From TrEMBL:
GO biological process: isoprenoid biosynthetic process; ubiquinone biosynthetic process
Similarity comment text for this entry: Belongs to the FPP/GGPP synthase family.
Keywords: Transferase
Annotated protein name in UniProt: Decaprenyl diphosphate synthase subunit 2
Species of the source: Mandrillus leucophaeus (Drill)
Pfam families the UniProt entry points to: polyprenyl_synt
Top-level taxon of the source organism: Eukaryota
Amino acid sequence: MNLRQLLLHLPRYLGASGSPRRLWWSPCLDTISSVGSWRGQSSKSPAHWNQVVSEAEKIVGYPTSFMSLRCLLSDELSNIAMQVRKLVGTQHPLLTTARGLVHDSRNSLQLRGLVVLLISKAAGPSSVNTSCQNYDMVSGIYSCQRSLAEITELIHTALLVHRGIVNLNELQSSDGPLKDMQFGNKIAILSGDFLLANACNGLALLQNTKVVELLASALMDLVQGVYHENSTSKESYITDDIGISTWKEQTFLSHGALLAKSCQAAMELAKHDAEVQDMAFQYGKHMAMSHKINSDVQPFIKEKTSDSMTFNLNSAPVVLHQEFLGRDLWIKQIGEAQEKGRLDYAKLRERIKAGKGVTSAIDLCRYHGNKALEALESFPPSEARSALENIVFAVTRFS
């Protein structure tokens, strides 16, 4: 399937008639054998995520939050935004996605583009192949690499929008009128497709076949990961026998492949050799995995957590908790946490916190952080490399 065909079929793969379901896992005997020793946080690394991102953006020349401004200010998307306003007052998840695109500072939805720019600057021009010397360069980054960073963000944003499609077959009376959800789904599909079309157009303008192949395969990985989520029912956590190894494979597809392959593509645009490309890929992969696990751990370590707050039963702490606990005890805990046919997340959260799943997830996060730092050792010391290290320190910081 080529990129154009993938774009046309994407809404169906992502569940045009339904929202992505959570993955529900059951334990197996596989566990983490060793996560290695954590290198510790650099004494010079910023203490807060916002500061890390702000300092990194200064290094690459301009805030990455404005990378997609040309697309976002286009007449087509302005018309879509006007339609999205009609959803105000409804409970369609597209509104939550829209707010997140503007206000999310903790997870930084522009993180992927920022990392692509930083690793481009950290690597610099190729010392072997000088065919790029005539390319435009601003703040040590080629214009084509900046375009790639924007394309990466467009793809990521499009997938976030498509993930907000509601499963109309599982609607409850508390979700609001059916017509609101139907209208919201149409807008989610339309706006997500528009962003993906712009990304495809940008890829074509790069005129690099290998980069197109890398980003197309990343998009295929994303679709495969989300399709797996869509095809998994809530009951499968009891019947399936899936452990942390499979969880890591699926998480790479849905959360790590885009950043990893975008980092590799940035090296390809600068004509770096295969070894440098692989190190960039490894950094993107392990940093993305660490970032995802950090997000998974948050509901279990926040001091102020609402009792009604749900968490993903496919998150790393839960999967690890199941493995340590064993299949039978996990099913028993699920049964004990049921209240009138509904899962009491507060009760289940306390059971998970009392086990080894949360601490093991933190160890796994730091393991991937160490792997990302190891990949950076092949790049020469620079401000950009330090910024990439600080991002790792920030996503592996839990105190």
